[in-house]
Amino acid sequence: MKTKVRVKKDFLMSLFAVFLGLLAGAILMVVTGNNPFDGFYYLFRGGMMNIERIGNTLGMATPLIFAGLSVAFAFKTGLFNIGGAGQMLIGGLCATAIGLTFDWPKPILLLAIVFGSLIGGALWAALPGYLKARFNVHEVVSTIMMNWIAYWSIFYIVPAYFKGPFLETESQRIPEAASMKVPWLTSLFSGSYINLGIFLAIIFVVISALILEKTTLGYELKAVGYNRDAAEAAGISVNRNIILSMSIAGALAGLGGATFYVGYASNMQIGVLPSQGFDGIAVALLGANSPWGVFAAAIFFGLLHTGKGFMNAMTAIPPEIADTIIATIIYFAATSVLIERNWDRIKRFRAGALLRKAKKRTLEAGSGGDQ
Amino acid sequence: MVDLIYQLFPYAIAFTIPLLITSLGGLFSERSGVINIGLEGLMLMGMFVGALVISSTEAIFPGTAVWIGLLAAMFFGAVFALLHAFACVTLNANQVISGIAINMIASAITVYLARLITGSGNVQIIRGLSRVTIPVLSELPILGRLFFTQTFATTWFVLFILAAATFLLYKTRFGLRLRACGEHPHAADAAGVNVYLMRYFAVLISGACAGLGGATFIVTLSGEFNGTAAGLGFLALAALIFGQWKPWGILGATFFFGFASTIANVSQAVPILAQIPGIYLKTFPYVVTLIALVLSSKSSQAPKAIGEPYDKGKR
Questions:
Q1: Nearest-angstrom CA–CA distance, B250 and B155
Q2: Which of A5-14, A16-25, A178-187 has the lowest mean pLDDT?
Q3: Model confidence pLDDT, tens digit, residues B57-75
Q4: Ranges of each domain in chain A
Q5: A142-167 confidence digits (pLDDT tens)
Q6: Whole-model pTM above 0.80?
Q7: A51-318, which class in CATH?
Q8: Of B151, B155, B171, whose CA–CA distance to B251 is shortest?
Q9: Contact of A47 with A41, CB cutoff 8 Å
Q10: Are the beta carbons of A326 and B108 separated by less than 8 Å?
Q11: Residue among A64, A330, A332, A343 with most chain B CBs within 10 A, to mutate
Q12: Taking CA atoms, what residue in B is nearest to A132?
């Protein structure tokens, strides 16, 4: 019963944050002399007006699902993984390296890419986890540092080993066999960016939900998140779970990197931290850290990102409006404590009013009976 | 080799100064107990406002446009930081999430506005600051060539702010109170300090400093706003930690990082330096910060109440 109430409240909070984010976007459009109704019409239409656009939305949402799962998973253990961007880069690098190096049949190559990016991301995040467990180094700071170490590593490794034929700033195109795009899916969605990553994402949403809800591992991870000392006292190894949680988070983000760099895109650009890493925080917050909530929030953000180009083509509104809306949603999600507090107050007030009304009615009914 | 150092020094210092002032801003915020991951975004806001104001006023006030731009960047940096202060101090929000939101809002809204204004999303300025040589001091042996030739006025301005900030933090009642808010806010409150007001003030200062840092980068080095602060704000954050939340530590850390970045940036052009792989130079600041965090884990100088929203009723 209690969890049901909680879910409903989380859902309302998320809707409220989305509403405020859209409102902020609308205000920005009005202030800069545009019609917000046109803007939102084309923004949403651009994300779902035909089967190709829907495919693009799903393709765009895929890395966001992984990034969101990554943040949510760490959050359950009380850890804040803001290293998603760096873990995505490392996962993408592993995927690209495997795809460009080996000449294997597609199924084996894809399997290798999945495992490679998973392990790469996991190792990249395990270090901050270890530093947290062993030296109590705050994971927020260490993951930020890891992001930039990844950024500069990619900046020099890609041109040195996988340089593209034309540009210094991007890798070679990955071969057909290494791409998560498959002909039947692409033609089903009439040539969109959708790829096998979306199925992988759904599988991992299910796995994450199972781990968190049905296994001892998930129970221990959450116990550490709820109360570290109580977990320790109950015989749960806090340090082991911290490292494990960060590694799983990193593995998820690494997979997200693979679905982005060898799924949605077909090469790696240097000098860019993938914005999905940070959007993932918004996705997790909006999805209330639950795997299916993450899934829904990621689709919504994928829609915004896919529609923004169309909106920009049809109106004078720059595409960055979508990023503004997402950023504002994070801001409001961060401040939702206040909303929640007031929400409780309103509810208590209403409950009190109902109680008084009911009392009054019984009194009236009682006095009526006497006459 | 010596000549090379002489040549590199002006660039290293020019790169250090925006980092230094931004990091100093972070120092104020974190010393008062508010984590500021939004430095990158605040810096970007300063870059945008600075470039915009200078590019639109330099035809009218050719000489002073740069300074108007720097002041405007400080002002809007502080105004933008209000968002962070409001979330962290008034609403007791998660300071890390709020900081991330600040970064994301800055990078979205500045590019949005720049696209509307210039079409391309880049804002260029025609004339930045010019380098000046200080008359008498530049005659000094060695030091004269290193520190007093080819300098920017902003360098001296920022160093002055550093000295003033150090004095303010360690020698005045205000500074003591501000630091108390970051170490033990309840004790500060009991002693009659308004913790909320103090933290607001500190976050606003950090916004102004980061804004100045961003604009300084525009007028001394890059000459244009191009939609990203390229991690400078995070580098400043690393310097703040590596400098162990102390003004002189920050000065050393930012210079250290500035010099390494400069070597990496010019290494292609200088044969001796080309032997050092860029990947080591560029990742160096972040790696040493991680190492510093590990080494100082037993005796960290971090403010004790950092990251905790102040709740009056909690004991």
A1: 15
A2: A5-14
A3: 888 887 788 899 999 999 9
A4: 51-318
A5: 999 999 999 999 999 988 888 878 77
A6: yes
A7: mainly alpha
A8: B155
A9: no
A10: yes
A11: A330
A12: B294
